[in-house]
Amino acid sequence: MKIIYRYLIKEILVTSIMVLLILVFILICGQLMQYLSAIAKGQLTLGLLFKILSVQMPILFSLLSPLGLFIGILLVYSRLYSQSEMVVMFAGGLSKLALLRFTLIFSLIVALIVGFMVSFVNPNLEKQREQLLFQAASTMLTQKILPGKFQSIDGGSQVYYAGSVSRDHKDMRNIFFARKLPPARGRHHSEGASWSIIVAQDTHQQQKDGKHFLVAENGYRYQGVPGSQDYQITHYKSYGFQLQTGLNRKKKENVRMMSTIKLLPKAFSVNNYAGEFQWRLSVPIAVLLLGLFAVPLSEVNPRKGRFANLFAPLLFVILYINMLYISVNWISEGVVPIIVGIWWLHLIMILSIIIVTGRWLGWRFLGWRR
Question: Is the pTM of this model over 0.70?
Answer without folding.
Answer: yes
